[in-house]
Amino acid sequence: MVPVWLLLFCLSVAQVFPEVQPAELYVEVPENYGGNFPLYLIKLPLPPEETEGEIVLSGTPSVAAEGPFAVDPESGFLLVTRALDREEQAEYRLQVALETEDGRVLWGPRPVLVRVKDENDQASGHQATATVDVSIVENTWVPLDPVHLAENLQVPYPHHMAQVRWSGGDIHYHLESQPSGPFDVDAEGKLYVTQELDREAQAEYLLQVQARNTRGEDYTEPLELRVVVMDENDNAPVCLLHDSPVSIPELSPPGTKVTRLLAEDMDAPGSPNSHIVYQLLSPEPEEGADGRAFELDFTSGSVTLGDAPLRAGQNILLQVMAADRGGAEGGLSSTCEVAVTITDVNDHAPEFTVSQIEPVSLPENAEPGTLVATLMATDADLEPAFRLMDFAIEAGDVEGTFGLDWEPDSSHVQLRLLKNLSYEAASSHKLVVVVRSVTELVGPGPGPGATATVTVLVEKLVPPPKLDQESYEASIPVSTPAGSLLLTVQPSDPGSSPLRFSLVNDSEGWLCIKEVSGEVHTARPLQGAQPGDMYTVLVEAQYEDEPALSTSAILVIHFLKAPAAWAPTLHPVPARHLCTPRQDHGVVISGPGEDPGLAGGHGPYSFALGPNPTVQRDWHLQALNGSHAYLTLALHWVEPREHAVPVVVSHNARTWQLRIRVIVCRCNVEGQCMRKVGRMKGMPTKLSAVGILVGTLMAIGIFLILIFTHLTLARKKDLNQPVDSMPLKAAV
Predict the structure, then answer these.
(1) Which of the listed CATH numbers 2.60.40.60, 3.30.310.50, 1.10.357.10, 3.40.50.720 matches domain 351-459?
(2) pTM, to two decimals
(3) In sequence order, what are the residues at sequence separation of 6 or more whose Cβ sits closer than 8 angstroms to the Cβ of residue 457?
């Protein structure tokens, strides 16, 4: 039996691959074919198997009716179902198409010309066929006339392969020019092959068969027989060596040629066994990808780039299967491999890691060369040459006050000060730094990350504060009470920025200074201080809006002996009270009537509230003149009760503390104090009144319960007596 592919490549003229097919497919069929049917003729160039549709074969009405041709839907081969006779019809014109169920044409129609090959079966006379082709088919016995045998056929030898018959009388046959060849013929015209044949050793043999009568006379010229040794598919395709790896630049467009894979087959050239087709095995398309990374031409082995993008640095192993017999079933195959490397191109623009730098503050007297900021940039390219960067200040530095410093192969740049700053000329600078690739960029241009903005704030140079004295001294008696004013620290320029004051090294805690005014007071009694001793503290002053700018001065306190005890007298004032909520009146405090130590009246008295924070919050003391002060409420509401307000009276270095008793009460509309009235004697309290009322109600309730109980019992007794019972009257 002849395999279905046997005559496919032996008899067809046209190639079977779509890329090189002519407009009309052509195939020859031997007439009166004596082998098995169906006989496969040619593989049709149908679309890929994924295409859904039905193969439709059409032709002349006679062809359609008798149906000698058909198409195998699985393999796509055109086949003939019976023997053809050239004298009946020499050729057939067919059309093949792929259509859907609704008649829509997906492929074709493709014309096919089938020509019936003349086998000269109408010869007459005493001469046999001029030339007989005897073919040897590998590993297959084909009952043809002439017979086909395979090379390397494992059968007993000599082996009968053909029969030559000469019309005429008693004829004997012998071979000419083949005394020791692999063929022989007996007297009856049976041709034999005497040993295994190897196509690689010799592909064809030309035999001359001579017909003679019994007298040894030749009937005619020798009959020439051409024996073709058919190829056995015993050689798999061999991949040719390929320079590896193949380098393909990133971003190459689809269709770019990658390489061409070639394989050789040592079987007979032009036979199906040596016809090689290629199939891409790997890489397979990624899941969810729109296309393939590589495309393969199955006839030429040419590999091109597909639609799927490739990344720089990828190392891909291409595996391609090379199969003989045109990829038909039963063929041999080999796997060809070639490494492909995707090389990097400069398609990524460098970008700063941070595009907006936080404001940087520089003092006005910063020296040139001062580092302002360090900017970092990155480049996604792999090639070191493509990562080289160039930096420049694009905007914001017209005067050239700033400059950039970086190494050629570095990814960071330093922004430095080149000239002196001036707050009056510019209080801030907004610099725009740009980074570019040294090598020409491929693909899209730089994005927004290619620039970074640096804001430089210039700090105005302000001199430190200056006080009105370099040092301060004060002399106070050791008996000076807490809250006494010692002196006031002031700035040398009253129009300068406000200062904030504080004390340093006040180890005893004797002193305090008001933060805003600079007044220095005694914080507590000077316990432990001895006359003649000195106490040194440091007064520190700093700007309110610039705490970093400060100055200091030394304050020395000299302790004196305590004077003789004397206190000013509080001159009697009309008995008054202060109203809460606050009203417009207060209490007048006067200095001493007679001060033996102040004969001649040297200077006025000063009045101040005690150091208690609550007293200073609730009360307000205002000097009226050199000898009197006016005490009022500082808050709108003060608790109504009798208050003892401490007042410190000072004169020169002498101080006294007075306690002024003031009654705070709620007042009526006339301003008169409303006193709280106590409980009158003999009058019940609320609690006792409630108790009496509850006791009375309980007594009344008990009395009513007793009455109702008595009535209920009496009524029940009357009901228990019989109705017809009458008292008996005694007869007199």
Answers:
(1) 2.60.40.60
(2) 0.42
(3) 359, 360, 361, 362, 427, 428
